[in-house]
Amino acid sequence: MDFLLECIGFPPDHDLPRMVELARRSGERAPWRGPDGEHFRLPLGAGLELRADRDTESAPWSVYPYFHHEQRTRLAVQTVERLPDSRYDLLVSGWANPPVSGDPTASREAFCLTAVLTDARRFPRELVRGHVLAVSLAGFAIDVESVGDDPRELERDAEVRRFSDGGWIRPLGGEDDPGGCIELALRVEHTRRLFNPLTGAEVSVLGLTTPERPLVVFTSPWQLEQCALERPLPGKIVRGVFLLTGRIAGGLPSATDRLGATFG
Length: 264
Fold this sequence. Notes:
Elements: H1 16-26, E1 28-29, E2 38-45, E3 48-54, E4 62-67, E5 73-83, E6 86-96, E7 111-117, E8 132-148, E9 168-171, E10 181-195, E11 202-208, E12 215-218, H2 221-226, E13 237-250, H3 256-259
Parallel strand pairs: 7-13, 8-12
Antiparallel strand pairs: 1-2, 2-3, 3-4, 5-6, 5-8, 6-7, 8-13, 9-10, 10-11, 10-13, 11-12
């Protein structure tokens, strides 16, 4: 999914081998990756990161975007799946913003999410179903279908769990769907401009309205231009598919005793 790098300001014709070389030369170890193989993070400023990974010296490099921020989402974990082709990642699904007590399915403010967590080494061998974690997540656009003002975009799908303003999120779980992907139709609550120092390109951080706090996502300006879509400004409705990635920000005991030492 190299095209996801467009979401943080790398053009479609970016030089992937050069980016790997740059991450290895100027980057640092990515937190909670490894110890085997090579795992690098290259901070770009304001939470943006370029990450380069491979599990062994003979494996190909993967390069992808990452966004580190302090916003936390409470997630009552329902399933945990270790990924065979990326052993330092976890695919988790569960209920975001669950009530402090009671059934999350009965809460209008709770909704289902699925995401890839990049610090699998922090996870215990077993986790009780419904255990609430604090996770820090960001979404990167796989495909933006529409951006506009028409509220009917929120109503096009009848069988979705809607928020009080009509917006919705649903995890994708088909055999052909990449893990950690969600489909959504949400209003833009706020935007923030950042810049990629390697390319000089502007990067838009979007806060999409969900219960409790906005969901942070990024879109590709090249895809928006190619599809003749509007710029996602506050008040606009964004509909599309996003990959959610992030880290565990709380809710687990220290892994130091289990692993013997922290990593990264």
